[in-house]
Amino acid sequence: NAGVTQTPKFQVLKTGQSMTLQCAQDMNHNSMYWYRQDPGMGLRLIYYSASEGTTDKGEVPNGYNVSRLNKREFSLRLESAAPSQTSVYFCASSEILYGQGDTDTQYFGPGTRLTVL
Amino acid sequence: AQTVTQSQPEMSVQEAETVTLSCTYDTSESNYYLFWYKQPPSRQMILVIRQEAYKQQNATENRFSVNFQKAAKSFSLKISDSQLGDTAMYFCAFMKRPGYGKLTFGTGTRLTIIP
Prior knowledge:
The structure holds 2 protein chains of 2 kinds. Chain A is an all-beta fold. Chain A contains no helices and 11 strands. Chain A has strands at 4-7, 10-13, 19-25, 31-37, 43-49, 56-57, 64-68, 74-78, 87-94, 107-108, 112-116. The radius of gyration of chain A is 14 Å and the shape is globular. Chain B is mostly beta strands. Chain B has no helices and 12 strands. In chain B, the strands form 3 sheets. In chain B, strands 2, 5, 6, 10, 11 and 12 form a 6-stranded mixed beta sheet that branches. In chain B, a hairpin with a 6-residue loop joins strand 5 and strand 6 (46-52). Chain B starts with a strand and ends with a strand. The chains are: A mainly beta, B mainly beta. Chains A and B meet through strand 5, strand 9 and strand 10 of A and strand 5, strand 6 and strand 10 of B.
């Protein structure tokens, strides 16, 4: 049981290049999320997917697109990278367990450190 | 919109001592969740403890406990018998209702445990 996995761990891009960050979870969770973490700003939500087939914008969606490929996988795409997108990106997943105590807790992947030159 | 404030950017404490990290939040919701996450140098985000707003009893997980003051909108984390492995960034996070999913994070407190 690997939990939430992300690839790659590190990436350097030039301005204008594109790339896709991959995320997969093996906990059978319905909901998945993409956050970015910048120094002094905590984590901010980029996009989320409440269930397979649905995606919604979070707090900072500009410059990103997402795809919920299936229940396990949720990818984040940068079509034309900009230096302002230099950040650490985290994927997370969660599940609501109605009637049980531990509900809606998000579990995070190890993160991807992205540098855009 | 919800906001989460962590007013202590950095703290340090001697090993085996007790330390309290502060968090305040602003919301008009009544049935929400609060979380503390730990981020060690490995960068992994690890859930430390959670609190449901409808529960009056403060959550406890081994050496970690919270002081949840709903009226004051305060949610502090107490770490007892601190250990070197507690050195990390600690983030307070808010979810405005069960099932909402999205978390709002504070800016974090960097905690250093001194040997």
